[in-house]
User: Fold this.
Amino acid sequence: MEQKIKDLKVGEVEVEGWLDRVRDQKSMLFVIIKDRSGKLQITVEKEKTPEIAKTLTSLMTDSFIRVKGLLVESPCVKLGGVELYPTEVEVLSSAKVSPIGEESSIDQRLDYRWIDLRDSKKRLIFEVQTIFVHAMRKFLMERDFIEVHCPTISGQESESGAGVFEVKYFDQKAYLIQSPQFYKQMAIASGFEKVFIATPIYRAEKSFTKQHATEFSGFDLEFSGVKDVEDVMKMEEELIEAGIRAVKEKLGDRVKAELGVDIVVPKLPFPRLTMKEVYEILDEECDYPLDEGDDLDREAEKLLTEYMQKKTGHQFFFVKEYPAGVRPFYSMKKEDDPEYTKTYDLYFKDVEITSGAQREHRADILAEQIREKGIDPKTMEEGYIDFFKYGCPPHGGFGLGLDRITMLLLDLPTIKEAMFVFRGPDRIKP
Ligand code: AMO
Assistant:
């Protein structure tokens, strides 16, 4: 294993790194190299090692080199109080001049995303996401959830309303999944009781907003034993709190120092509103009336967020019991008010990060609800409605958009910055 800069001990060393800076002085050359762990000064005495000096001055920033030499203590050197006198330098990859710089637009930077990501601040975003996802997995495994992996090519559309990418599948038509919805419900019908699925999700929508991508990372849950949508919401708020707490504990200081963002661990429980309350608030408090039965538009989401932040000081809030007309066919309707459903959305700052629900698990009612959405239930028997004909417990779950929560947690201006590689209507490279 190669040695990382931060682990080097004085004496003979061999180290690899990116060329960061070269300061050329009369008789000396000071070269800084870096790896993920830190930076190191290489001190070259031009007269003693002219070949090494020549090699290093000929290189562009971000060339990748291997250096052998003597590491000595040197209290006046700012970088860790050590410097490396090289005896051998090997150029492993010489770089051309970078096509992007600090003044480049986000889209120029995305063309060269691998170079853009060399900035340690950008890397930190993915370190945060790693900790967040790991903490969620730990939370779920402690509660006996099983992780399953599902196909992303399907013969069926799962989310009426959301755009779907059609793919040629030999001589049949197939789709890229808009959600792992059917597979997580299938796992419940398989008696798995508690499952989660982390998967790519595809949406063929020409949306150019800060929170839309055409492919994103979903983190989906489904579990049985659900009596009401509240059971699902409770599971989600605890899960999110655990994820953010882990980020705060492990990386909170670095996020503050490098990105200038305070990670706030949310207090439980998150505030809750029913859609009926939302209609009233929008009308009476925000002067933005919606018709009963309407979904929230972007303006309503912003106004409601402002209202909730003022009223509760909370960055998260749930909106539950949506009208049946704006929710997918798989949502269970309220027994005492069937115009409304046992569904919810979770908002973080002013963006929806999750949809969830108790599901309709009775095959005959499900078929009826599919018909109400204008879809012929026969087209959904095989591969969906059939799951519920051979016994299936009541259940519920939710789908969390990972890229959105990362963007919001770190106050990033767009989801493009929160995704390792962004996919949008006009971007399919790199
Ligand atoms: P929904 O369609 O609300 O619900 O999607 C769930 C979550 O996925 C994220 N999301 C997106 N992220 C980036 N770009 C997009 N275009 C995009 N679309 C959605 C959001 C959203 O809240 N099957 C249900 C979930 C369920 O009920 O379990 C579903 O797919 O964070």
About this structure: The chain has two domains: 5-93, 113-271+314-418. The two ends are 30 Å apart (CA to CA).
